Amino acid sequence: MVSKYSAGYRGILRELRKSLDPSRKVNPVIRSHFRSIVESARANPTDQALVDIDSTILFLRSQREHKRLVDRYNPLHDLTEPERIKATANRVGLNLPKLPNSESQ
């Protein structure tokens, strides 16, 4: 039977992989850091260590879900300020006036 620590480590890696684009891999430094944390928890087993591992998995899952929801319901979050203003004006049916260029004066 797989130990709770191994299952927790696999859960952390699973959430890290799901949070990245399909073309990217999990950073080996991050992976080794989480592995050392789980190994030290396995060497000195406590209930708090298992709670911390489960909390880490829940945090990673929540962060991924939050990013998905922001992308879905707030499509303007990654635009520059002028693009955001223009998109907001277009949303309510207005067009922005053309501003004179400072170079043409």
Helicity range of the residues?
A: 55-70%
Global geometry: elongated
Terminal residue distance: 77 Å
Question: What is the domain tally?
Answer: 1
Helix/strand-derived class?
mainly alpha
Unreliable residue runs: none
Residue-averaged pLDDT: 87
What is the H/E string?
A: HHHH
Strand proportion, as a percent range, falls in under 5%
Radius of gyration, CA atoms, in whole angstroms: 23 Å
Number of strands: 0
Largest sheet: none
Tally the helices: what do you get? 4
Can you put this structure into words, describing what you see?
It holds the Pfam family Complex1_LYR_2. One of its GO terms (cellular component) is mitochondrial matrix. By secondary structure, this protein is an all-alpha fold. It is 67% helix and 0% strand. It has four helices and no strands. The chain has helices at residues 4-19, 28-43, 47-73, 81-91. The protein is elongated.
Main features:
mainly alpha, about 0% strand
Condensed summary:
Helices cover 67% and strands 0% of the residues.
